[in-house]
Design goal:
- The protein has 117 residues and is an alpha/beta fold.
- The chain has a 4-stranded parallel β-sheet, sandwiched between helices.
- Strand 1, helix 1 and strand 2 form a beta-alpha-beta unit.
Length: 117
């Protein structure tokens, strides 16, 4: 199963993940969030993100979703990407997250495509 990491400003990602749990009504595994605050050091964020990725990657890769391209969360994500193993998509929304969470048993490129659709 593909892991999912949500990297957003403040608690946006945490709120979306909690809403997803409520909507889907099932426990969600291999999913984590990283909240980014103005005072955070980007290098520390990258280390924290890598630790989270290690915890949710079962070998099928990780899709990292972020809120705004070009902002700190997106810049952190761009430093984590590994072609074919860790992919990223910006513009995360609740419908995007639900699509990704309900179809994580395929390939990582397919998950990227579903997130972008």
């Amino acid at each position: 199963m593909i892991g999912v990491l949500i990297v957003t400003h403040g608690e946006i990602g945490t709120a979306m993940l909690e809403s997803s749990r409520q909507i889907l009504g099932v426990p969600l595994t291999q999913v984590a969030t990283l909240s980014v605050w103005r005072q955070d050091d980007p290098d520390d964020l990258i280390l924290r993100a890598r630790e989270l990725i290690e915890g949710i990657d079962a070998g099928d890769g990780v899709l990292v979703l972020t809120d705004i391209f070009g902002a700190t969360p997106g810049n952190v994500v761009s430093r984590l990407l590994e072609d074919g193993h860790i992919e990223g998509v910006s513009g995360v929304s609740l419908p995007m997250l639900l699509r990704v969470l309900t179809s994580r048993n395929g390939s990582l490129p397919a998950a990227v495509q579903r997130a972008q659709s």
